[in-house]
Design a protein that fits this description.
The protein is α+β, with helices and mostly antiparallel strands and 449 residues long. Among the domains are: 311-341; 343-445, Orthogonal Bundle (Arc Repressor Mutant, subunit A). Strands 16, 17, 18, 21, 22 and 31 form a six-stranded mixed sheet that branches. The longest helix has 30 residues, at 313-342.
């Protein structure tokens, strides 16, 4: 509680102005030292040190200005203040103590909830809702003929931009947290992506998905506030004491909790010299005060969370590339393993088998393969020991050995489509023969001799 009181004293300045009407409009003013508060009966020139002076308008309101003042959208452009009719179309200027109409258009009623902004020598209106559709259109005011013109955009254009959060940084306009409505059902769909519009060539680009930690605020009902401070975006909702400070250049955000600076202020506000100026209404008396808060003091509040703002494409592709690399490596390892396993044959007492394939063999054929399960090279003399029979000649044993090897190789070739054993002369002594097991084959013996 003590910390809260200290922050209140630090955040509030000595400025305070009481209003006796709910229909008013706060304007920035030409000088950093003062601002305007327009009412139906006249306007205030309010200085930041607390002084204010009431003045009557030098001219009557234009007849076309038939809506409450607080529904107009103000914009400061090239030291001139402009007021946009709700929904677009009619455009007014406030100067020399009067409101004058400067357009030759009509009430479009096509871009409610659009974003009104200035870039270089032009003023634009982007997005909005009208005639049962959310719009992504960009319109520019032509100061020469007093009408609005459509600006053609290209690229990854979002489908509908209503009630979005916007951030203008150099020649880039960033937008997120906006609504699109289905034409048939009028069902609201909250877009979860961050988009950027290059204002030099009006090319749209989708940057990535917003952090889920920000998404819960989208479900909070109430008006949205956002403004630029020190090349960062500060945004929050009226019914939530939680607010965010976004650093788009470093793709990061910090969240804070504040019961004073934003939570109790109205949707009308301006920023002058890093001070947030807006109305606060006493719920008991109904009294409205224009208060000033030092926006720089928001960093005195404890940080609730700090994280990335959006998951960008480069990071996404890094994950994709890593996944592809890992998958490729896994395929290679599994291929090597499979290749090795596919060449391993199991020899038991009656047969040889691999991966569901099996071939029945005679006892002598099993004995031959058993020799190759111990050594890949078997000398002819060692092999002859299997075929030598008491009372029989050596020539008989040779014929029997050759016949057995031919029969065995024929069976194995037919069953497994691979050569098993081949004969060659010994490298050390050409008179000696040796039999060699195919180097791509491995034999494992699984029986007790």
């Amino acid at each position: 509680m003590k910390r809260l009181i200290i922050l209140l004293l630090l955040s509030s300045t000595s400025f305070s102005q009481i209003l006796d009407t709910n229909d008013f409009l706060i304007l920035e003013g030409e000088s950093p030292k003062y601002f305007y508060v327009l009412t139906n009966n006249g306007y205030y020139i309010s200085e930041l040190d607390g002084k204010n002076a009431f003045n009557e308008y030098s001219e009557e309101f234009p007849k076309s200005l038939n809506v409450p003042l607080n529904t107009l959208i103000p914009l400061k452009h090239n030291f001139q203040t402009y007021l946009l009719y709700p929904g677009g179309g009619l455009l007014y200027s406030f100067s020399n103590g009067s409101i004058k109409r400067i357009d030759r258009s009509f009430p479009h009623r096509n871009q409610y909830g659009a974003y009104f902004f200035s870039y270089k020598e032009n003023i634009y209106l982007i997005g909005g809702y009208g005639y049962w559709q959310t719009k992504s259109i960009i319109t520019k005011f032509n100061f020469n003929n007093g009408d609005w013109e459509i600006v053609n955009a290209v690229g990854q254009q979002p489908m509908g931009l209503d009630q979005g959060t916007y951030f203008l940084l150099e020649n880039k306009l960033y937008v997120f947290d906006f609504i699109s409505r289905e034409i048939n059902t009028q069902k609201e769909v909250r877009n979860k992506n961050l988009y950027v519009l290059d204002l030099e060539n009006f090319n749209w680009k989708k940057l990535g998905v917003i952090n889920d930690e920000i998404e819960p605020l989208n479900q909070v009902k109430g008006f949205k506030r956002f403004f630029k401070s020190d090349n960062k975006l500060i945004f929050t909702y009226s019914n939530s004491p939680k607010f965010f400070v976004l650093d788009i250049e470093n793709n990061s955000f910090q969240s804070f909790r504040d019961e004073i600076l934003f939570y109790k202020s109205d949707d009308q506000f301006i920023v002058k010299n890093n001070s947030l100026i807006g109305p606060i209404k006493n719920t008991l008396t109904g009294e409205i005060r224009i208060e000033s808060f030092d926006a720089g003091r928001i960093y005195d509040f404890p940080i609730i969370e700090e994280s990335y703002f959006y998951r960008d494409k480069e990071e996404f592709f890094e994950y994709v590339y890593f996944a592809l690399f890992f998958l490729t490596l896994l395929i290679i390892v599994l291929s090597i393993y499979h290749k090795k396993v596919s060449q391993t044959y199991i020899v038991d007492e009656n047969s040889i088998s691999i991966s569901g394939l099996s071939q029945q063999l005679s006892a002598i054929e099993i004995s031959v393969l058993s020799l190759f399960s111990k050594n890949r090279i078997v000398l002819n003399s060692k092999l002859m020991e299997l075929f030598m029979t008491e009372g029989k000649t050596k020539d008989y044993a040779v014929k029997r050995k050759n016949k057995t090897l031919i029969s065995l190789e024929t069976k194995l070739k037919k069953s497994f489509k691979v050569d098993f054993i081949k004969k060659q002369k010994s490298r050390g002594d050409s008179r000696r023969l040796a039999y060699i097991l195919n180097k791509k084959i491995r034999l494992i013996k699984e029986f007790t001799e």
